[in-house]
Amino acid sequence: MKIVPQKLVGHKNFVRENPKSDRFVVKGFHHVEFYCGDALNVSHRFAWATGMRETSQSNLTTGNHLYSSRVLQSGDITFVFTAPYSKQLCAKELAPVEQGQDGLPAVPHPHFNPENARSFFDKHGVAVAAVGLLVGDAATAYEESTKHGGIGMLKPVRLVDATTGGVMDISEVVLYGDVVLRYVSTPEMPSDEKITDDEQPPQEGLKPFQGPFLPNYRPVEAPICTLGLTRIDHVVGNVPELLPAVQYIANMTGFHEFAEFIAADVGTVDSGLNNMVMANNNEMVLMPVNEPTFGTKRRSQIQTYLEHNEGPGVQHIALACDDIFHTLKEMRARSSMGGFEFMPRASDAYYQCLPEKFGEDLTPEQLQQCKELGILVDKDDQGLLLQIVTTPVGDRPMIFLEIIQRVGCMEVDQDGKVAQRGGCGGFGKGNFTYLFKSIEEFEKTFE
Ligand SMILES: [Fe+2]
């Protein structure tokens, strides 16, 4: 079984294979949880900027005296924003609190540690603390991961929703730095493929939890509004050394290498990086990892990130949509009113070349909209990719979002549904130089 990448060969020499080597059933991304200093404010800014709506919360009003946590959703995307309460009050509350004000268990994540959350925020600022994966069985995932080098952070624990009786199992291992990979499963979720003999069969009488995020958050009634964001496409990490990080991930999960890019593929004259993309069997979980390269005129932007983050962490999250022109128009309209801003548009020369390269893929009107909205276009041998990135969404030059639309690669999945193959259209290799140049220009604004 081919599992562990041993060296970088670059985009040109890399041959993509899918050995379907997952060590346990992985279905897709489940959520991303950010730690922050104030969940109300940060979640509301993300909601306004992206059109995600708040669907549930846990805080003082639900009897949670340890932390405030708010869940935003759009399509299949779940973002969670969590902030600990006062250190002094948390110390008093750390004695077990059985029930909150409306009968819900007061603390939905029973192993939440306010001191860890506080020091995480102190060190990293607003940053991703957990990447959640929907797996066949969180206990098996934990067992397999820790058996193959994964550092355990939370042994499998069963959560039961007090209102619905729905059950969810979670477990956590280190992903990189202070970020955990959180495995999530519900007992009746059917496995679409059997990988290990010890995967737990559905247990009779257990009802799967079907609400947003974790059990025992209180649902929030909010009008359904969306800017069209549908799913998490990929979550990218920055680390000081690429090979040990991807070997660790590949070993514990069985994920395979989906793509790679070296400095010669992606760098500008001034700065660069190396990158490997890890993927699960169905390639719907795509987890690229970057490392800085050195010896160039400018410091690698990955190194800038690592210094501001005080170590490894999530660099960006790509969110897919079905109509990027609509989504971008709406997001750009919010930019000057507290929404997210985008990296400067590419040059006119970039857009002058698009008709020749993509005239068969996009109409003249669509190409014109790409120029007006600053959307970049690329394709590989499988499909078309439309993409744009925001500037960092917080104070530090760290985490940003990417908005993408993949076109093509439609196929019938195992359930007979027509679905798009993961990673269709690649990762915008043709745009890398421009993207990194634009980030260099952005960095010059604070030098
Ligand atoms: Fe990306």
Automatic annotation (TrEMBL):
Cofactor: Fe cation
Sequence ranges assigned to domain VOC in this UniProt record: 231-391
InterPro entries per UniProt: 4OHPhenylPyrv_dOase (IPR005956), 4OHPhenylPyrv_dOase_C (IPR041735), 4OHPhenylPyrv_dOase_N (IPR041736), Glyas_Bleomycin-R_OHBP_Dase (IPR029068), VOC_core (IPR037523)
Pathway: Amino-acid degradation; L-phenylalanine degradation; acetoacetate and fumarate from L-phenylalanine: step 3/6
GO biological process: L-phenylalanine catabolic process; L-tyrosine catabolic process
Recorded family membership: Belongs to the 4HPPD family.
UniProt-recorded name of the protein: 4-hydroxyphenylpyruvate dioxygenase
Originating organism: Chara braunii
